[in-house]
């Protein structure tokens, strides 16, 4: 990336690279104008760069298709090469990104298992990229409580507010490597509830799936269910969920006439249909700008003691604005 040449005008370069003005705006908006405590480590700085990447992909690229789309690693390199305060650390960018990736997989995750009124079906979401299904969930932000994270993530991924149905003591928890995943059981949701993600390019499909169709077809309990669906983040919770259901009475009796296959209740217009019997498509609003701080904990990594030279940053910004 360091060899890229960018146009100084407001128009994209002929090869689709963003103009310097856009990169300066992203750096200023997401990296420079944040509380000082968010600039105390590269892990936290990379969370800010990730927010800038989301904004670039969801707003800049969508409004101007001539702009090139980047992976997070490519965008990180581009921003480090373009931002004066980050450029001195370009030589270490591979180590910085590797540490960030390792750190992210240890951030706790919370979400919800949403059951219908018969407790026969649960709501699953499919990611924007790939074909794996999961319960709606996401990583905790700094100082965020588990239940608050679950409410926020489910709302972002499905458009459904579970706050009035969530019981703090009703959850299933599992450990994946060094990451804790806690899913609150949200029981008795009407199957005709409208669902649609509030974030963009994160969820491609939302569907009700029969629990008995999600049981592993073999001893491979973390891969695929009977229907062939990829269930890496679903299957490990099914035994505990079945036990919970056996001790709770559903609001409605089972419905033997319900379709066997999954019922799609929302689907992005440009994604494949898959196994579904009903399709409802809606347009997606823009991903909201992040208003929470990244997680602040984690083991020490390289550059943990890094600090920005704030006076030099302000001096560079002043020189830039006056030129």
UniProtKB/TrEMBL annotation:
<feature type="region of interest" description="Disordered">
    <location>
        <begin position="276"/>
        <end position="302"/>
    </location>
</feature>
<dbReference type="InterPro" id="IPR044099">
    <property type="entry name" value="Dcp2_NUDIX"/>
</dbReference>
<keyword id="KW-0479">Metal-binding</keyword>
<dbReference type="Pfam" id="PF05026">
    <property type="entry name" value="DCP2"/>
</dbReference>
<comment type="similarity">
    <text>Belongs to the Nudix hydrolase family. DCP2 subfamily.</text>
</comment>
<dbReference type="GO" id="GO:0140933">
    <property type="term" value="F:5'-(N(7)-methylguanosine 5'-triphospho)-[mRNA] hydrolase activity"/>
</dbReference>
<feature type="domain" description="Nudix hydrolase">
    <location>
        <begin position="105"/>
        <end position="234"/>
    </location>
</feature>
<keyword id="KW-0464">Manganese</keyword>
<dbReference type="GO" id="GO:0005737">
    <property type="term" value="C:cytoplasm"/>
</dbReference>
<dbReference type="GO" id="GO:0000184">
    <property type="term" value="P:nuclear-transcribed mRNA catabolic process, nonsense-mediated decay"/>
</dbReference>
<dbReference type="InterPro" id="IPR007722">
    <property type="entry name" value="DCP2_BoxA"/>
</dbReference>
<dbReference type="GO" id="GO:0003723">
    <property type="term" value="F:RNA binding"/>
</dbReference>
<keyword id="KW-0963">Cytoplasm</keyword>
<dbReference type="InterPro" id="IPR020084">
    <property type="entry name" value="NUDIX_hydrolase_CS"/>
</dbReference>
<keyword id="KW-0378">Hydrolase</keyword>
<dbReference type="GO" id="GO:0000290">
    <property type="term" value="P:deadenylation-dependent decapping of nuclear-transcribed mRNA"/>
</dbReference>
<dbReference type="Pfam" id="PF00293">
    <property type="entry name" value="NUDIX"/>
</dbReference>
<dbReference type="InterPro" id="IPR015797">
    <property type="entry name" value="NUDIX_hydrolase-like_dom_sf"/>
</dbReference>
<keyword id="KW-0694">RNA-binding</keyword>
<dbReference type="InterPro" id="IPR036189">
    <property type="entry name" value="DCP2_BoxA_sf"/>
</dbReference>
<dbReference type="GO" id="GO:0030145">
    <property type="term" value="F:manganese ion binding"/>
</dbReference>
<dbReference type="InterPro" id="IPR000086">
    <property type="entry name" value="NUDIX_hydrolase_dom"/>
</dbReference>
<protein>
    <recommendedName>
        <fullName>Nudix hydrolase domain-containing protein</fullName>
    </recommendedName>
</protein>
């Amino acid at each position: 990336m360091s060899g890229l040449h960018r146009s100084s005008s407001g128009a994209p370069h002929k090869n689709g690279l963003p103009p310097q003005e856009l990169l300066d705006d992203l750096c200023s908006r997401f990296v420079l104008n944040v509380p000082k405590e968010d600039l105390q480590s590269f892990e936290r700085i990379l969370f800010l760069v990730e927010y800038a990447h989301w904004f670039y992909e969801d707003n800049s690229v969508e409004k101007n298709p001539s702009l090139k789309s980047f992976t997070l690693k490519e965008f990180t390199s581009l921003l480090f090469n373009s931002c004066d305060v980050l450029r001195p650390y370009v030589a270490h960018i591979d180590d910085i990104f590797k540490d960030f990736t390792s750190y992210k997989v240890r951030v706790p995750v919370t979400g919800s298992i949403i059951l219908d009124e018969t407790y026969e079906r649960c709501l699953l979401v499919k990611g924007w990229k790939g074909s794996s299904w999961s319960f709606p969930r996401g990583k905790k932000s700094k100082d965020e409580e588990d239940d608050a994270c679950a409410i926020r993530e489910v709302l972002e991924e499905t458009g459904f507010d579970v706050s009035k149905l969530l019981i703090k003591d009703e959850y299933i928890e599992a450990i994946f490597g060094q990451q804790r995943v806690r899913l609150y059981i949200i029981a008795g949701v009407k199957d005709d509830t409208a669902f649609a993600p509030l974030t963009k390019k994160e969820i491609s499909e939302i569907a009700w799936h029969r629990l008995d169709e999600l049981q592993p077809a073999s001893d491979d309990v973390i891969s695929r269910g009977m229907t062939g669906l990829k269930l890496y983040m679903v299957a490990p919770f099914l035994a505990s969920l079945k036990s919970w259901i056996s001790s709770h009475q559903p609001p409605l009796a089972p419905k033997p006439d319900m379709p066997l296959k999954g019922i799609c209740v929302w689907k992005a217009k440009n994604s494949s249909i898959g196994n579904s019997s009903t399709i409802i498509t809606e347009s997606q609003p823009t991903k909201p700008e992040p208003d929470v701080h990244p997680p602040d904990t984690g083991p020490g990594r390289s550059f943990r003691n890094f600090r920005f030279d704030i006076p030099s940053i302000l001096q560079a910004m002043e020189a830039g604005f006056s030129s």
